[in-house]
Design a protein that fits this description.
Shape of chain A: globular
Strand order of the largest sheet of chain A: 4-5-9-8-7-6
Strand order of the largest sheet of chain B: 8-7-10-9-11-12-13
Number of strands of chain A: 10
Strand content of chain A: 25-35%
Oligomer: heterodimer
Distance between the termini of chain B: 60 Å
Strand content of chain B: 15-25%
Shape of chain B: globular
Number of strands of chain B: 13
Largest sheet of chain A: 6 strands, antiparallel
Order of helices and strands of chain A: EEEEEHEEEEHEH
Number of helices of chain B: 14
Distance between the termini of chain A: 55 Å
Largest sheet of chain B: 7 strands, mixed
Helix content of chain A: 10-25%
Radius of gyration of chain B: 25 Å
Largest interface: A-B, 36 and 32 residues
Radius of gyration of chain A: 20 Å
Structural class of chain B: alpha/beta
Order of helices and strands of chain B: EEHHEEEEHEEEHHEHHEHEHEHHHHH
Chain lengths: 271, 407
């Protein structure tokens, strides 16, 4: 009730925020060189001056350029949307989800690289995660700030791909979970869909200070992120299917690993 | 804890040989030792806190010391010192020394900053069409092509503060949106649930320079500003209630006798919701430049109108006339007319909207009023549309900016 953006009341106890509904959302689809990617998501709903990017109908993977050349991956943003979650009875914004869809391609490409090969795909994910999270360390203890991948699930109904989460290290940060879906769209390009869930930190004079899980419910955000990621449907183009057959030729085990333990990153020594 | 409690024993932390002796409760001594060892290891915030605590032995209170009103003489009163990562309470004993009886230290301050729970300085840049913020752990700005430092309003999310600060940085008259998009900008983030100043926190809006709630953020901003003197042409753009933090930071710098005259820095108050006259006066005192159009206020937004002061537009204009020799009486007159004009047009638009709504109501109620209502609406519709933009900006700023950005 009264889950609006205005904040007129102080939060005094545990609250469950409410975000946009998922029931009557329309399906959006993108065409990436014949490979079609479609998903359902609500319209952007946020109270900040957010610059949203809506997906186009057609993309040419060969023409996708990126300004960022210093890193080992090139990435291009296809879509960027954000949903706010408001607390009941005018307690204001408590959390948000940010959805980003990107196409990623390694800068240095080996001749034989084919992301439809399970081992190459797993290596690609490890390299991409190291780029995104591998340089974030606690300034105090030097521990890594993020753990990932956790909750690893190879996709069952789709041609090829995996779902997993990246969560914060509870010893360093309090809150944050990024839900990912990564799938190859051809032999050199990985499609990455990421839902970042962020709750507001606890600001209260209550002593002892409640932890974030005792203060704001995470379930509504996890539910929406799960619904969005569940709705993704990827149909490979004939060329991509040929590349997949080529990669899987002669392999006894064509499935992804059952368990993918979290990666460990080391803080580089100073000076 | 009251000042009556007599310590049985204490440990000295500063003023061994000269100055005023600073003593600490024995069970808090390990906390202080831990802070000191962190400071020696190079922890920025610990170094700052230890330095401040030790500097109490000079006997001179800086403005980060707040006096608790306990009805005693101030010379024997209780004090609280608020620093980034540390909060200490102390009182003066009869032999003149200061006795610290409470010390709360966040040894993991940098991690709390990363968790968006504490204020900090961030660099925002746009890569792949997406804005992202990076914490600058030493809280110092670097020389860039466009030296814009936005001071965001209090928020629980760094991402939201970034998006609002970006809007302030690009919409101010001092900056150019292409520059901001290409080079990024720095912004100072204040963590908290409420907005600063405005009609809801009117006391904070009237006296932002002495508000203890803003102090932790302001002391960091003052540190950033002090170390930015070497960088030329920095533009400090406050967004909404960020002006409160900027005001208190300028007060801290003024009390330390720091002057920016040689550095050619400018300030801009975008949508100011705290005391405008005080902010301009402090900027003038420490040699920060600002022009007549340096503040932007929407007369439809009660938080901005009441927060910055009802007559602040006129008082600020008078102050500019009195304090600045190049500001002639003619310019003062222009300022007054402009201020009066914008307020009057705001009132007129509100009046027209009200009467147009009344006329529309009349239309539905009685058939006789119909032609009159249509004539009235036809006469005032252009004015209504003209004023509508400002009303929309005041009440739905995000939607207004979103639509504005499409053109």
């Amino acid at each position: 009730m009264f889950n609006w953006r205005w904040r007129l009341r102080e939060q005094e106890s545990f609250l469950s925020p409410k975000g946009p509904g998922f029931h009557n959302t329309s399906r959006m689809s993108m065409n990436l060189n014949g490979t079609s990617v479609s998903f359902r998501a609500p319209k952007t709903k946020t109270s900040s001056n957010f610059e949203q990017t809506r997906p186009l109908c057609n993309y040419d993977l060969k023409k996708l350029q990126s300004a960022e050349s210093e890193s080992s991956w090139k990435s291009v943003l296809l879509a960027n949307q954000k949903w706010d979650f408001y607390g009941p009875w005018l307690t204001g914004k408590l959390a948000h989800i940010q959805l980003t869809i990107t196409i990623n391609k390694p800068v240095a490409i080996n001749e034989g690289l084919n992301f439809f090969h399970p081992r190459a795909f797993e290596n690609g994910i490890a390299s991409l995660l190291s780029l995104l999270y591998g340089s974030r360390f606690s300034a105090v203890s030097g521990e890594q700030q993020w753990f990932g991948p956790v909750n690893w699930r190879p996709l069952a109904n789709q041609p090829f791909g995996a779902r997993f989460d990246v969560t914060v290290n509870p010893c360093v940060l309090e809150d944050g979970i990024d839900c990912h879906l990564i799938a190859p769209v051809d032999k050199h390009h990985l499609l990455k869909i990421c839902c970042k869930i962020k709750r507001s930190p606890v600001f209260t004079d209550q002593k002892p200070e409640p932890s974030i899980d005792e203060w704001i419910d995470q379930a509504p955000m996890l539910k929406l992120a799960g619904q969005i990621l569940d709705s993704f449907e990827i149909t490979l183009s004939p060329e991509a299917e040929a590349q997949q057959r080529e990669a899987l030729q002669g392999l006894d085990d064509t499935s992804l690993v059952k368990e993918f333990p979290p990666l460990k990153w080391e803080k580089p020594a100073e000076r | 804890m009251s000042a009556n409690i007599q310590p049985t024993s204490s440990r000295t932390i500063a003023g061994f040989h000269n100055g005023i002796r600073i003593t600490i409760k024995p069970d808090l001594f390990p906390v202080f030792q831990n802070m000191q060892s962190l400071a020696l290891q190079g922890n920025h915030w610990a170094r700052l806190s230890v330095g401040y605590l030790k500097s109490l032995s000079s006997g001179h209170f800086k403005n980060n010391v707040f006096v608790k009103d306990n009805g005693r003489l101030e010379s024997f009163g209780e004090y609280t010192i608020i620093l980034p990562g540390c909060r200490a309470s102390f009182h003066r004993r009869q032999n003149g020394e200061f006795y610290i009886y409470s010390l709360e230290a966040d040894s993991n301050y940098a991690d709390l900053q990363a968790a968006e729970k504490k204020p900090g300085l961030y660099h925002a840049n746009k890569a792949n069409g997406e804005w992202s913020a990076t914490l600058l752990p030493d809280a110092k700005i670097k020389e860039r092509k466009s030296n814009i430092v936005a001071i965001a309003d209090q928020s629980g999310f760094v991402q939201d503060a970034l998006e609002d600060a970006r809007d302030a940085a690009t919409s101010s008259v001092l900056t150019n949106s292409d520059y901001v998009n290409d080079n990024g900008f720095d912004f100072h983030f204040t963590a908290g649930a409420k907005k600063i100043g405005g009609l809801r926190n009117i006391n904070q809006a009237r006296n932002p320079d002495t508000d203890p709630k803003l102090h932790e953020s302001a002391i960091q901003l003052a540190y950033t500003m002090r170390h930015a003197i070497g960088v030329k042409d920095v533009k400090w753009v406050s967004e909404g209630g960020g002006s409160g933090v900027l005001t208190q930071a300028m007060r801290i710098l003024k009390d330390r006798g720091i002057n920016f005259s040689s550095a050619n820095h400018r300030v801009f108050f975008n949508g100011i919701s705290t005391n405008l006259v005080m902010a301009e006066q402090l900027a003038r005192d420490i040699g920060l430049k600002f022009s007549r159009t340096t503040h932007k206020k929407n007369h439809f937004n009660p938080h901005q109108v009441f927060g910055s002061g009802l007559a602040s537009g006129y008082t600020a204009a008078y102050n500019r006339y009195k304090q600045d020799e190049s500001h002639t009486a003619l310019k003062f007159g222009t300022d007054i007319v402009k201020e009066a004009g914008s307020a009057r047009s705001a009132l007129a638009t509100i009046g027209i909207t009200g009467s147009a709504v009344a006329a529309a109501m009349g239309v539905s109620a009685t058939a006789i009023a119909l032609p009159a209502g249509i004539a009235f609406a036809a006469a005032f519709l252009p004015k209504l549309v003209k004023g509508g933009g400002a009303i929309a900006e005041a009440n739905f700023p995000r939607q207004y900016n979103k639509i504005k950005g499409k053109f």
